[in-house]
Amino acid sequence: MNIAGILGGMGPLATMDLSNKIIKYTDAEKDSDHVHILIDNNTEIPDRTAYILGKGENPEKYLIDSALRLEAMGADFIVMSCNTAHYFYEHIKKSVKIPFINMIEEIAKELKGIKKVGLLATKGTYYSNIYENIFKKYGIEVAVPPMHLQETVMELIYRVKDGNSDINEVPINSVVEYFSKLGIDNIILGCTELPVAFEKMAIKGNFLDPTKILAISTIKLVGKKVARI
Known about the structure:
Blueprint: E1 3-8, H1 12-24, E2 36-41, H2 48-52, H3 60-73, E3 77-79, H4 89-95, H5 103-110, E4 116-120, H6 123-128, H7 130-135, E5 141-143, H8 147-161, H9 173-181, E6 187-189, H10 193-201, E7 207-208, H11 210-221
Parallel strand pairs: 1-2, 1-3, 4-5, 4-6, 6-7
């Protein structure tokens, strides 16, 4: 498999974050050492969380159309960094003939020896149990914050999506502290906007970045070398 296809647009900044991390974590001395990437940055895909919560248009057709475009363009496999969109994973996978890598499965494989993790995500991801459904196969328990703290996470996510520069006003540390009080040190930043936000806000901790994990998996799948950073 030589060409990676990114099913993106959810959101555009998060899509570029995945692309940038594929470049960053590739051990390359020249252009040809890098991964050949095709990107469908489809910003018309309806809000995944809104649909899952019964408040918006079904994005499945748009997601399948993007997957088919990537296949037609010559992608050998597809990756998708939007966590919530993995709710539609099986239907998208069945629509194409090329492999579609499940990011959440890749994260579970990375968590060797860890029995419990905290999850920061959209309400759509929480509601659909997409992490729990896969992680239970690996014996990993997923802890989620109470509703009022889920609202805090959602506020941060949508401020990043909106390009709002006032993300530092969101008290996201209260959610991190909630997990800390439960003795949970490993926290998954389970929405593509969260690694972007945490980097901008310089929040330190033992956070797992799904985008980074997916980027490294992509590099390995095309047979390129992973950089030591």
